[in-house]
Amino acid sequence: MPPDLPSEYRCAVEVTVDIAGGKWKPLIVHYLLSGTKRFGELRKLIGGVTQRSLTLQLRELEASGIVRREVFAEVPPRVEYTLTPLGTTLAPTLEAMKVWGEHYLASKSG
């Protein structure tokens, strides 16, 4: 039996979309599934995301317990982002999105 939903949500899908949805969050998680990345690496991989948007999305994912941010005491400072164990549980969801996207593209081309 699923846990009780907080009053601001109508269904568990809404929770998932709130935590991991949006324009950039799925891509951030997708690229972090392959390992730890620095901010600049993520920005290059994603493409088209502004520094501000990426910063905000990473902060939200960190606050939700999906991403861990580690700051190293170096000059210049080095910051790395890694998925938490909870974040890695999104892998099957992203794989399903990838498969759906492939099917969608195939249906449009033929």
From TrEMBL:
GO molecular function, one term: DNA binding
Gene3D superfamilies for the chain: Winged helix-like DNA-binding domain superfamily/Winged helix DNA-binding domain (1.10.10.10)
One Pfam short name: HxlR
Top-rank taxon: Eukaryota
Transcription among keywords: yes
Keywords in alphabetical order: DNA-binding, Transcription, Transcription regulation
Protein name according to UniProt: HTH hxlR-type domain-containing protein
The organism of origin for this protein: Knufia peltigerae
